[in-house]
Amino acid sequence: MQLTDLETPALLLDRTRLDRNLARMHEHLTQLGVTLRPHVKTAKSMDVVRRALAGQPGGITVSTLKEAEHFFSNRVTDILYAVAIAPNKLDHVADLRARGADITVILDSVAGADALAAKGESLATEFPALIEIDCDGHRSGVKPGDSALVDIGARLHDRRGARLKGVMTHAGDSYNCRSVDAIRAMAERERTAVVRCAGDLARAGLPCEVVSVGSTPTATYAECMDGVTEVRAGVYMFFDLVMAGIGVCTLDDIALSVLTSVIGHQPDRNWVLTDSGWMALSRDRGTAKQPVDQGYGVVCDLGGRPIEDLIVVDTSQEHGIIAKRNGGSVDCSRFPIGTLLRILPNHACATAAQHMQYHVIAGESHVEAVWPRFSGW
Amino acid sequence: MQLTDLETPALLLDRTRLDRNLARMHEHLTQLGVTLRPHVKTAKSMDVVRRALAGQPGGITVSTLKEAEHFFSNRVTDILYAVAIAPNKLDHVADLRARGADITVILDSVAGADALAAKGESLATEFPALIEIDCDGHRSGVKPGDSALVDIGARLHDRRGARLKGVMTHAGDSYNCRSVDAIRAMAERERTAVVRCAGDLARAGLPCEVVSVGSTPTATYAECMDGVTEVRAGVYMFFDLVMAGIGVCTLDDIALSVLTSVIGHQPDRNWVLTDSGWMALSRDRGTAKQPVDQGYGVVCDLGGRPIEDLIVVDTSQEHGIIAKRNGGSVDCSRFPIGTLLRILPNHACATAAQHMQYHVIAGESHVEAVWPRFSGW
To answer: A284 to chain B nearest CA, in Å?
Structure first.
């Protein structure tokens, strides 16, 4: 099958770039002496994750129990569910555990620990848990130095329904860094936050077998992983314009794109209309706050080469409007109706989520496979 | 099943509100003497669309050929595919037509008309088509008064591979109106644009059986449909915060919400953390440019009543951050871990698209049905 045989919009995955991105991350983390627990929330595809797990211990990170179910059905058993556990999900977690999935949950409060332990006791099971640490004020977690850490740890350790496995953090604020130096500093802040907390637990006589960090920017540029037992990352597999905008990759590393057809023109406005709107590209505008705003995505030719200054400036549900980044004239006759273009996404997780499969390409035009992916909860 | 039995996040559809919204639109259009061709791009569910078709002629509007396939498999045959047709979709359209689906396509250029007719001739079939009219400079279409209209019409009429059925327009810019008067004026502009173009075709001796308009704001407030044969609208079934923000509905009309669990707190920041991030709510920030910015959605209690000034101020993939609209203190103890909340969406089309089913509620807590929906192309 060729790209020209596909109905548009269609999600393309460049396997050559994927493999290169995976190899680069593996090599970097191997040099730092730490293993990778890939976050599957970006790919949601066993075909992709199987490649990401090559040479790694085999554990994954998930953001939904549907991901846990899917990858467990594909014989992945070591699963970290990295969103603070809601009580209404515990029966499901217990059921997965009873079927053989070794799922660990996370939480960041005494109340959460009590609820977990109580549920474990009522089900006569034991939920392994990590304590989430807030390394950067970005979202959730216990702040390093907060006495709640040991309170939570003691509850998880002491009660029969739970088991304290360790600590984890996510430097989500690394997405707002503007230089490699800033990302390096964030990586060190991420590491020291969990290593300090692991020490606090140890000093309190509590176990801390797992010390887990992760974000694609910090994993890419970290220079030291002393005291860390594993790294979580997901978007590094595909990369995207947000990552390119903070210097974590180049446009040539972005493995994901949306194949798009030209369906019309408004020459007086220098607009080229396409059939890829926000449903195909996602509503993500993650580059809006970056120095270079990429609109809803960078426009490339069929071979994946960016076309000078053309971006998707606006979208509706199934329409995209392509124009020059800073206005300026577009020769619409270069893009006759039916022209195929490829759009690089702002945010790989969001764009991939809009599609049901990857059309896998290796060269410029041949589709060598179709890999299913899934969505929902 | 009760709401408290669901795993979160889960998409809820209030059937009472849905039925009221459907009845109101039907009544209004009946008074104006025009029929409704519901746009199924919002609901993507036969269970919803069956209700929307009650008392109407039975035709639908689609935004993807997957919608066409799905509803045709549910015995809907009169289908308008309302995105300018891309050449790579014509084999699929021809195949649907050969199987009995009466699909009409749209286009807005001479080149598009030529491509359509040539393909029809090569397949020994005839593609019915409407000419898209640009009534508001919002996106695509031929401007009223542009001589291209008759050129396109003549090609569709004269060539064997195509058939000219009429004209259509979409007042997309009505989403940017800020008053009911402005919407009424936009509705009249939408109507006069297509009626004028229908007249131009007739004066050129060309047929124009269909004169189609549509957007939820203009359909809601239009006062005259003279010369119009049908109205298209979709979001009126569910409504959303964008529609409420321009005065097309109230918060009490919004039939869609996302059931959400509290998973943590950051009391020093007055944040309540939930398990509904942009994956569950969508990345749509359609209220950002409105007088009242609703963040990623308005927070309601389990009964669907908005909680004073609480909105989702930020999201990551599977996390939402609830806070006061204008900062200010939140008593986190009111929302213990496990508390169930409901989030009203900015944009029903975008939020529904993130989910695989509707959990249908009629009262405050009972789930009376699960209606499947679909995504993709």
So the answer is: 6
